[in-house]
Write a structure and sequence with these properties.
about 300 residues, alpha/beta, seven-stranded parallel sheet, disordered N terminus
């Protein structure tokens, strides 16, 4: 006992000592890799996931709409986190996946199969190498997104990611426990960070953040509804097909801004917006609107174009 460190004393009985606990200083920073759990129902899985990523030198854990909002202090979660309690307690909690992916520029939806209208599909090892290449270029954080224990990710959440990603497993019995899937993914990502660069890196997407892509699709839906192409009451598969098409295109920030500007012009042509700016409403003689609320001076505030309002 006297020859062991405090961390060794607290090690859980089923632990296997790691022979390489030091991250490679030349590799991209592990804190740029985010692990996102969507609607986990068991606190123990959150704690086990925290332990899984910490053993691979990662610590960035986000949880979306957990069934138990007090999962950080739940007994089962703390017990299964073992020496990674700090990762569990430092995890970020979010009400939606979009908020959990804030700032992420490359997101992989962990799912066992490619969805019909989903984003491009990768096997995990290929995705990990792509993520390493992305980080080496300094193009922003990456994320691996995991669904709920029983049903996995919804199609809607898969479509919010740039790629879908699968862990190769037996075709007849390929379902993994949530914490197991996180462990395998963290392992592959750690191997990728320490591996030689791939001879030919996968074609990268343009780097537009997830939340920006989501605003674009909201703008596209509004524009296509305005011209009569899309009916929100009878959506069919048009928007899903469009998501898949643009996911393959790999849009940059400037390209997303361009498309959002086009959508704004479709909904309200520029000449109408310009006419409204040239002909502001007449002010009330008393300088107010007649309701006791002062009118804002012409030309101040606001933003034409629509992008900033979406």
């Amino acid at each position: 006992m006297h020859g062991k460190s405090l961390s060794q004393v607290r090690q859980a009985p089923d632990s296997i000592e790691s022979q390489d606990a030091r991250p490679d200083s030349a590799a991209p920073r592990p804190d740029q890799v985010r692990f996102v759990l969507v609607e986990p129902s068991h606190c123990g899985n959150i704690g086990a996931a925290a332990r899984a990523i910490r053993t691979m030198a990662f610590s960035n854990l986000s949880v979306v709409d957990a069934r138990d909002p007090d999962y950080r202090i739940a007994g089962e979660a703390v017990a299964l986190a073992a020496n990674a309690v700090a990762v569990l307690q430092d995890s970020r909690s979010h009400p939606t996946l979009i908020e959990a992916l804030d700032g992420v520029t490359l997101a992989f939806a962990m799912t066992g199969y490619a969805r019909e209208f989903g984003p491009p599909h990768r096997l995990l090892r290929e995705a990990a190498l792509q993520a390493r290449h992305w980080l080496e270029q300094g193009r922003g954080p990456v994320a691996f997104v995991f669904g709920t224990e029983r049903t996995g990710l919804t199609n809607r959440d898969v479509l919010r990611c740039h790629y879908s990603c699968a862990i190769p497993a037996d075709a007849q019995l390929g379902s993994l426990n949530l914490a197991q899937a996180v462990q395998v993914t963290a392992y592959e990502m750690r191997c990728a960070l320490g591996a030689l660069p791939p001879a030919r890196a996968p074609a990268p997407h343009g780097g537009a953040p997830v939340e920006m892509i989501e605003r674009l699709f909201e703008s596209l839906e509004g524009a296509l509804t305005a011209i009569g192409f899309h009916d929100p009451q009878v959506p069919k598969h048009s928007m899903a097909r469009l998501r898949s098409l643009l996911a393959r295109a790999g849009l940059s920030v400037s390209e997303v801004e361009l498309l959002m500007g086009i959508c704004a012009a479709i909904v309200e042509p520029k000449r109408l917006r310009a006419g409204r700016r040239r002909n502001p409403p007449l002010s009330h003689p008393s300088g107010s609107s007649g309701t006791g609320v002062p009118l804002r001076p012409s030309g101040s505030g606001g933003q034409a174009g629509g992008e900033g309002d979406r």
